[in-house]
Amino acid sequence: APGLTLVATPIGNLGDLSARALATLRGADAVLCEDTRVTGAMLARHGVSVTMVPLHEHNEDDQTPKVLARLRGGARIALVSDAGTPLVSDPGYRLVRAAIAEGLAVHAVPGPNAAVMALTLSGLPPHPFLFLGFLPPRAGPRAAEVARLRAIERAGLSAAVIFYEAPHRLADTLAALAEELGADRPAAVARELTKRFEEVRRGSLSALAAHYAGAEARGEICIVIGPAPEERGSAEELETRLRDALAAG
Ligand code: SAM
């Protein structure tokens, strides 16, 4: 259909590109993608030849007016990211917001997403869940973000929590989470989902931290933490906690 279509692509296994995703990409006047080499290789594997236009963090604001002009003219534009669902820890939100503001058609072809797949394989209670994307890379802001999560939990939120993480930071992050959220807190590390070396390791935060401190993790990783045990308290205690959480931002 004419308009902007957000197309989810595989997170590893190329067989996960859906029939509708393939048809949408084939029929597009242009495919906006983060990296034309990554998307070009994926399209080539499926025998699709289509015009690709880079759209990434650094040019999204420049590209947006050009894309909107084409959409106004009735073009069929697809948006993909390197892997998985566009906009989820990936570019595209500013373009989508601008298209919606102009009343232009926005569609999506749903498909793979690492966070949801990790959640469903974690064996942890899946509902409700909180997806926090990547923690900040620097130690100070990371510790502050984990403390903020703890404050939210103390205010009464009991949800599974999902993060994306880079392999070289995994052990440190698990140790920091164990320290702040409790060594016994159940968790899971999902690695290389849909790929040859897919692995889901389940255990307490401290056991997982110990495991990955000893063996350097490789590949792409999601961390899932089980919901905080409900901390029941008096109305007064809850109010104090809520105030603390608000003060912590
Ligand atoms: N938009 C993507 C999605 O829908 O999953 C996520 C993009 S984000 C930039 C990339 C991060 O997602 C990786 O660093 C990793 O944390 C996680 N990820 C992506 N593919 C994965 C996989 N096959 N297994 C585990 N985690 C994955």
Q: How many strands, what sense, and barrel or not for the largest sheet?
A: 5 strands, parallel
Average pLDDT confidence is: 94
| Amount of helix | 25-40%
Order of helices and strands: EHEHEHEHEHEHEHEEHEH
The amount of beta strand, in percent, is: 15-25%
Radius of gyration, in angstroms, nearest whole number: 21 Å
3D shape: globular
What structural class do you assign from the helix and strand content?
alpha/beta
Q: How many strand segments?
A: 10
Give the uncertain stretches in residue-range form.
none
Euclidean distance between termini CA atoms: 42 Å
Strand order of the largest sheet: 3-2-4-1-5
Which small-molecule ligands are present, each listed once? S-adenosylmethionine
What's the tally of helices? 9
Give the topology.
Blueprint: E1 3-7, H1 19-26, E2 30-33, H2 36-45, E3 52-54, H3 60-72, E4 76-79, H4 93-101, E5 106-109, H5 114-121, E6 129-134, H6 139-154, E7 160-165, H7 170-181, E8 186-191, E9 199-204, H8 205-214, E10 221-225, H9 235-247
Parallel strand pairs: 1-4, 1-5, 2-3, 2-4, 6-7
Antiparallel strand pairs: 7-10, 8-9, 8-10
Helix pairs in contact: 3-4, 6-7, 6-9, 7-8
Enzyme class: transferase
Family: Belongs to the methyltransferase superfamily. RsmI family.
EC number: 2.1.1.198
Keywords:
249 residues; alpha/beta; 5-stranded parallel sheet; 5-stranded mixed sheet; 9 helices; 40% helix; binds S-adenosylmethionine
